Amino acid sequence: MEYNFFATISRMKYIDRWALMRNSRNETLSEHSLEVAMIAHALAVIGNVRYDRNLDENSAALIGLYHDSSEIITGDMPTPVKYYNPEIKEAYKEVEKIAEYKLLQKLPSDLRPAFEKIYKTDNSAEDHYLRRLVKAADKISAYIKCIEEEKAGNTEFKTAKASIGKSLDKLSEELPEVKDFVNEFLPPYGKTLDELS
Known about the structure:
By secondary structure, the protein is an all-alpha fold. 66% of the residues lie in helices and 0% in strands. Helix 3 (57-66) packs across helix 8 and helix 8 runs antiparallel to helix 9 (158-174). The longest helix is centred in the C-terminal third of the chain and has 27 residues, at 125-151.
């Protein structure tokens, strides 16, 4: 029997993000997901090393890697639409859950439980905290996109950058891992390769 899960997931490379905005360089869902996975992993490492948390760093990376995979089915819903009001936000969450369920059905039943752990919380405090870090990584990745667009001379992302920056300030107050990452790792973004070398 054939299973379509990975062939479907591989289509993340065809989904462009920021569809309503003029981009100096398009960003695919695959690129974004890889960046979120790396940042989520780093946030979990920071939490474990500096704040004595007991977070599964590898799970942070996997959750980050698959966090937007439902958009293969739903498409990338622009943030202003997704969060326009509480009813739309809740309806979209439900659509995402259905899309994730459809993706999971594309796996053989014996493998499905391992992937369900990526998509569904186990309701433990650690898992809840880990998923908050993944959401923060998603915001950090979006902020990085704004920095890159600004560096390319594109002012289209100015408002998004300010809005996401406020969100990161709030997250930095709640999650010390985010504050550390923002202070220590975010400043070099936008530098040239020579400046980074």
